[in-house]
Specification:
With 159 residues, the chain is mostly helical. Helix content is 57%, strand content 6%. The protein is elongated and about 75 Å long.
Length: 159
């Protein structure tokens, strides 16, 4: 009887270990996917690349296997671009057709000095993290005190 109990305990232990390994692998895959997305977005945000025809950008993404990953990020509703040394946000990034489901956007610790008005197209945006950039004090205070909707209103009135 005791032998059966120890066998069951051993089986449960092995099952838990397998589940942990599976979760670890999934977490690693998600982290790698996010890393690839961040690389692609950083590449596409460069001023020299923004002038490149759209078809060439898509070819680049396809060759790198990133086009599908960017689509997944847009579908999942979150995008993190922290610590990427981004200086300028291309207004096209916030095209409502491309980012309709975007709910969380992290731009922490970059060199961004201006938030484009086109970000107001992101009607589903609930979390917007912009600390650690070169934004003017008024923009920072509005975001801090009035949140996303206050920032959107400010951008619509200012630009």
């Amino acid at each position: 009887m005791g032998n059966n109990a120890s066998k069951k305990e051993e089986e449960l232990k092995k099952q838990k270990e397998l589940e942990e390994k599976k979760r670890d692998n999934e977490d690693k895959q998600k982290a790698e996917q996010q890393k690839q997305i961040d690389i692609a977005v950083r590449f596409l945000a460069q001023p020299s690349v923004q002038k490149t025809p759209e078809i060439e950008k898509r070819i680049f993404l396809r060759k790198k296997g990133l086009q599908q990953k960017l689509l997944i990020a847009k579908q999942q509703g979150f995008l993190s671009l922290r610590n990427e040394n981004i200086e300028e946000l291309n207004p096209e990034i916030f095209d409502i057709d491309k980012c309709l489901k975007l709910q969380s956007l992290t731009l922490r610790n970059n060199n961004i000095s201006l938030i484009p008005k086109s970000i107001t197209n992101l009607q589903n945006l609930k979390i917007f993290i912009i600390q650690g950039n070169n934004l003017d004090q008024e923009t920072v205070e509005i975001m801090k005190n009035k949140g996303i909707q206050g920032l959107f209103q400010y951008l619509k009135e200012t630009y």
